[in-house]
UniProtKB/TrEMBL annotation:
Source organism: Psychromonas marina
CDD domains: M48C_bepA_like
Protein name: Putative beta-barrel assembly-enhancing protease
Subcellular location: Periplasm
Function as written in the Swiss-Prot or TrEMBL entry: Functions as both a chaperone and a metalloprotease. Maintains the integrity of the outer membrane by promoting either the assembly or the elimination of outer membrane proteins, depending on their folding state.
Transmembrane parts of this sequence: none
InterPro entries named in the record: Mito/Outer_Membr_Metalloprot (IPR051156), Peptidase_M48 (IPR001915), Protease_BepA (IPR030873), TPR-like_helical_dom_sf (IPR011990), TPR_rpt (IPR019734)
Binding, Zn(2+): 130, 134, 195
Pfam family, one: TPR_19
Length: 480
């Protein structure tokens, strides 16, 4: 298992994308230079390896409705960005720190703490747009290129250090420290432009994607003001310093666009309520009081989101009847809302009304069979109903179209345990391990699947998987 400190060490690379500086009124549009230093194909390889490591070491939230929301928001921003040369992936990490980070290969990490602090969707989208700009402008590649000018060997050394940490933590961390010590000041001087460029490009993308262009400046401005005198500012202020000149320029740039009135977004407010109750330090009683107070005093942006938050709080307190009553009301008013469909399933299963949950979800899932929220909720309901064969049928079809969906594999492992399907249990566990880069363990699990299966077809498939894992392991080692 990768140590979390390795993630911190690797993320240290990105601190150099945000060194404090004075603003420039006219930023050079240096675009996507750096391709010579780190090709797109090589960046994809490093991005692939990073995601494997993150899957194993970071507290990634495997919540289908939150993942659905953040992926939609992220892809909307990417769809309105220029110079997109990589596929993007957005994932949530359970961390109350106010932060987000971009990594190689189109990976964008978003902390749950951002939801707790951002007042509206445009503010959250502003942070995401900023991180997307870091990737589209290939800022890490450009930092590597700048370093290689003064030390031609440093590019290969730094790139190798990143992946060395994957297989040898102590050696990798030492290599990173040594490599990053070279020409430190020239890196800072070079990368101070990156934050301004990410702001400039991100604000344009933010506006084109339909958000308030002031969202980024407003969020960063409130953050800077709140923690101006703090002895322990949040991580974001360490990785994204906010001098007054940078904030002023961001506001001026936002002001160049036509005024845009953006209504409060329900899905964002529902996501914020879900994170507040389920991925926060609130006790159930505190959460109940918080949302009851909001509703009593009309201190909410959207009433439905406050009611959803209260329903979640009731559920957390095991007041399943109260939670279900609110869930029914919310769904009646908005019958296609995925947040409500997901939550009402929780309440029905908690109340042992399994048949009702299956009847409710089935027509929705049939209309959208590739939707993770609907399919995985229905699979769990069918499993509770002991309708294992139907659950297996839906799950196998879903995994074929979503081979990298970790939660689906977790659900499948539990299902095969209940079915006493030892071969399929081991095979699914092997696939799950491979999504974490643990290819040697995956090969061992698939070997166990071979022992249990009596199907010639499955034997051939499992043997092919073992060969594939060996090749992937070599692929990972080749990046050292």
């Amino acid at each position: 298992m990768f140590n979390k400190s390795i993630i911190v060490s690797l993320y240290f690379l990105f601190l150099f994308l945000s060194a404090p500086s004075s603003a420039s009124n006219s930023l050079p549009d240096i675009g996507t230079v750096g391709a010579g230093a780190l090709t797109i194909e090589k960046e994809k390889e490093y991005g692939w390896a990073f995601r494997l490591m993150a899957n194993q070491a970071l507290p990634i939230i495997h919540d289908p409705i939150l993942n659905h929301y953040i992926e939609d928001l992220g892809q909307n921003i990417v769809g309105h960005a220029d110079s997109v040369k990589l596929p993007f992936s957005f994932f949530l990490v359970e961390d109350s720190e106010i932060n987000a980070a971009a990594f190689l290969g189109g990976n964008v990490k978003i902390h749950t703490g951002l939801f707790l602090y951002a007042q509206n969707e445009s503010e959250l989208a502003g942070v995401v747009a900023h991180e997307v700009a870091h990737i589209t402008q290939r800022h890490l590649a450009r930092m590597l290129e700048q370093q290689s000018y003064s030390n031609p060997a440093s590019l290969a050394a730094l790139a190798g250090s990143i992946l060395l940490a994957l297989v040898s933590p102590a050696a990798g961390m030492a290599a990173i420290s040594t490599t990053m010590a070279v020409t430190m000041q020239s890196q800072i001087n070079y990368t101070r432009l990156h934050e301004y460029e990410a702001d400039r490009i991100g604000i344009t993308t933010l506006y084109n994607a339909g958000y308030d262009p002031y969202g980024m400046a407003n969020f960063f401005g409130k953050l800077a003001e709140k923690y101006k005198y703090a002895s322990m500012p949040p991580q974001m202020l360490s990785t994204h310093p906010l001098p007054e000149t940078r904030l002023a320029e961001a506001r001026l740039r936002a002001g160049q666009f036509e005024p845009k009135r953006v209504n409060s977004n329900l899905d964002y407010q529902l996501s914020k309520a879900r994170i507040t109750v389920r991925y926060n330090s609130f006790t159930a009683a505190t959460a109940i009081n918080y949302y009851q107070s909001q509703l009593k005093n009309s201190r909410y942006q959207l009433k439905a989101a406050a009611e959803y938050g209260l329903a979640l709080a009731y559920f957390k307190n095991k007041d399943y009847q109260k939670a279900n009553k609110l869930a029914v009301q919310l769904l009646e008013n908005d019958p296609n809302n995925l947040f409500y469909l997901d939550f009402i399933t929780d309440t029905l299963l908690a109340l042992k009304q399994t048949e009702k949950a299956v009847q409710l979800l089935t027509p929705y899932q049939q209309r959208a069979p590739k939707n993770a929220v609907l399919t995985l909720n229905l699979v769990v309901a069918l499993q509770e109903q002991k309708n294992y064969k139907q659950a297996e049928k839906l799950l196998e079809k879903f995994i074929r179209s979503h081979p990298d969906h970790i939660l689906a594999h977790i659900v499948a492992i539990d299902l095969y345990k209940l079915m006493k399907e030892r071969a399929k249990e081991h095979a699914t566990k092997a696939n799950y391990l491979s999504l974490q880069g643990r290819f040697r363990e995956a090969s061992q699990e698939m070997g166990s699947a071979l022992v249990y299966t009596k199907s010639n077809l499955d034997q051939a498939r499992y043997s092919a998987s073992i060969d594939y894992y060996k090749k992937q392991d070599l692929r990972l080692q080749a990046l050292q």
